[in-house]
């Protein structure tokens, strides 16, 4: 355990009869004054140290500054005091959100038991070093493809609802609303406020982005901030915010600072606007321009339709003016005689062909009859058939008792063979 030994120093001396802290017991405790004096004397021996951090509190009272410094990588903080004499020697633009390096010396105030650090010098962290780190991060993100144009999403032509992330009651918010409403009076906003500088900037912007990106009614999101020095815009180059914007499903418009400001958010956003005013103009179409365009399109359509109808009427009149359409009767009369001759010629030709075919048919019929068995039967002959329809050609094939069928010119009859008749000698 560390033991604090009291010694004679400036300020209030501890009571002479008080027990030293290292000798205190339950029966013989030391006094608060002597304990505080011992701590003060111990702290007074600490040397001045240079510390780097972010200003999270900056209150000016009576020319003196009372504030806090936060570690940039953790939640660790210290209280600081800057007396008016020192404040006159440090940059006048220091404030909340600035990344600084300060020369501090520990100080313990006996009366209040308050431990803080007195600042003897303070300056901004070298911007060159920060910009160098940002450029390395920019190269890394570009190599990962986060800046590729192919991955950027198309903004809707007329968003139904615009998400806006900006500082509460900021000029950027007013500029976006005013210019968007001038262009399209029915535009609807859903605003999520966030700190636009300091240690709250990144976490609050991330939370606002997550909330608006998850809202199905939000068609596009604008992240807007007014101008500022590069130091105050560092939050919009934070790797966590940049990657969150790249991963968002809703199109993102970056409108940070002025034309010459270029945080990493500009590179990864789907659209970079030079100012909040420019963002409003890029996201919302101008109703006057759209009405004028519609008027132009209507005029062009009317002109083209009128030209087409006029052209078609002229062509129709030209066709109607031709002799064949103006007076078709002479043409029909001249063609009627030709048609009658063709019909007569056709009838004659068909008649001759039919007569020739009739004669040919008669000749074929006579030849067929001459060759037909029916003609032979008509002359008095008969045909004898055995069972099964076999024609009898030899008398030996019909011995006595054989049943026969005799076919005559008209009808058939059955008979029975008495055997072959011998030929007369």
Automatic annotation (TrEMBL):
<protein>
    <recommendedName>
        <fullName>Exodeoxyribonuclease 7 large subunit</fullName>
        <ecNumber>3.1.11.6</ecNumber>
    </recommendedName>
</protein>
<keyword id="KW-0378">Hydrolase</keyword>
<dbReference type="InterPro" id="IPR020579">
    <property type="entry name" value="Exonuc_VII_lsu_C"/>
</dbReference>
<dbReference type="InterPro" id="IPR003753">
    <property type="entry name" value="Exonuc_VII_L"/>
</dbReference>
<dbReference type="Pfam" id="PF02601">
    <property type="entry name" value="Exonuc_VII_L"/>
</dbReference>
<dbReference type="InterPro" id="IPR025824">
    <property type="entry name" value="OB-fold_nuc-bd_dom"/>
</dbReference>
<feature type="domain" description="Exonuclease VII large subunit C-terminal">
    <location>
        <begin position="146"/>
        <end position="364"/>
    </location>
</feature>
<keyword id="KW-0540">Nuclease</keyword>
<dbReference type="GO" id="GO:0003676">
    <property type="term" value="F:nucleic acid binding"/>
</dbReference>
<dbReference type="GO" id="GO:0006308">
    <property type="term" value="P:DNA catabolic process"/>
</dbReference>
<comment type="subunit">
    <text>Heterooligomer composed of large and small subunits.</text>
</comment>
<keyword id="KW-0269">Exonuclease</keyword>
<dbReference type="GO" id="GO:0008855">
    <property type="term" value="F:exodeoxyribonuclease VII activity"/>
</dbReference>
<dbReference type="Pfam" id="PF13742">
    <property type="entry name" value="tRNA_anti_2"/>
</dbReference>
<keyword id="KW-0963">Cytoplasm</keyword>
<comment type="function">
    <text>Bidirectionally degrades single-stranded DNA into large acid-insoluble oligonucleotides, which are then degraded further into small acid-soluble oligonucleotides.</text>
</comment>
<comment type="similarity">
    <text>Belongs to the XseA family.</text>
</comment>
<feature type="compositionally biased region" description="Polar residues">
    <location>
        <begin position="1"/>
        <end position="10"/>
    </location>
</feature>
<dbReference type="GO" id="GO:0005737">
    <property type="term" value="C:cytoplasm"/>
</dbReference>
<feature type="domain" description="OB-fold nucleic acid binding">
    <location>
        <begin position="31"/>
        <end position="122"/>
    </location>
</feature>
<feature type="region of interest" description="Disordered">
    <location>
        <begin position="1"/>
        <end position="25"/>
    </location>
</feature>
<dbReference type="GO" id="GO:0009318">
    <property type="term" value="C:exodeoxyribonuclease VII complex"/>
</dbReference>
């Amino acid at each position: 355990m560390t033991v604090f030994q009291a010694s004679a120093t400036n300020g209030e001396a501890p009571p002479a009869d008080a027990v030293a802290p290292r000798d205190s017991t339950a029966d013989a405790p030391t006094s608060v004054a002597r304990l505080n004096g011992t701590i003060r004397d111990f702290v007074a021996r600490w040397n001045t140290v240079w510390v780097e951090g972010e200003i999270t509190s900056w209150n000016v009272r009576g020319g003196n500054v009372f504030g806090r410094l936060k570690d940039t990588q953790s939640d660790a903080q210290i209280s600081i005091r800057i007396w008016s004499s020192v404040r006159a020697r440090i940059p006048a633009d220091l404030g909340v959100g600035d990344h600084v390096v300060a020369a501090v010396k520990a100080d313990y105030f006996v009366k209040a038991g308050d431990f803080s650090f007195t600042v003897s010098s303070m300056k901004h962290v070298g911007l060159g070093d920060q910009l160098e780190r940002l450029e390395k991060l920019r190269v890394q993100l570009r190599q990962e493809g986060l800046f590729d144009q192919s991955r950027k999403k198309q903004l809707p032509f007329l968003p139904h609802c615009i998400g806006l992330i900006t500082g509460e009651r900021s000029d950027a918010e007013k500029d976006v609303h005013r210019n968007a409403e001038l262009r399209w009076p029915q535009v609807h906003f859903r605003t999520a406020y966030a700190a636009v500088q300091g240690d709250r900037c990144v976490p609050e912007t991330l939370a606002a982005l997550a909330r608006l990106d998850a809202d199905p009614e939000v068609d596009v999101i604008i992240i807007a901030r007014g101008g500022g020095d590069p130091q105050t815009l560092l939050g919009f180059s934070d790797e966590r915010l940049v990657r969150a914007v790249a991963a968002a499903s809703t199109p993102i418009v970056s409108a940070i600072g002025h034309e010459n400001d270029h945080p990493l958010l500009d590179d990864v956003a789907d659209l970079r606007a030079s100012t909040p005013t420019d963002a409003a103009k890029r996201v919302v179409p101008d109703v006057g321009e759209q009405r004028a365009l519609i008027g132009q399109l209507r005029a062009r359509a009317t002109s083209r339709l009128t030209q087409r109808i006029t052209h078609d009427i002229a062509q129709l009149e030209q066709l109607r003016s031709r002799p064949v359409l103006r007076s078709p009767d002479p043409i029909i009369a001249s063609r009627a005689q030709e048609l009658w001759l063709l019909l007569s010629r056709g009838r004659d030709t068909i008649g001759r062909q039919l007569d020739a075919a009739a004669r040919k048919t008669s000749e074929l019929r006579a030849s067929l009859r001459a060759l037909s068995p029916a003609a032979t039967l008509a002359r008095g002959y008969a045909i004898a058939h055995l069972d099964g329809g076999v024609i009898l050609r030899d008398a030996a094939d019909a011995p006595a008792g054989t049943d026969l069928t005799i076919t005559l010119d008209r009808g058939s009859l059955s008979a029975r063979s008495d055997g072959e008749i011998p030929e007369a000698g």
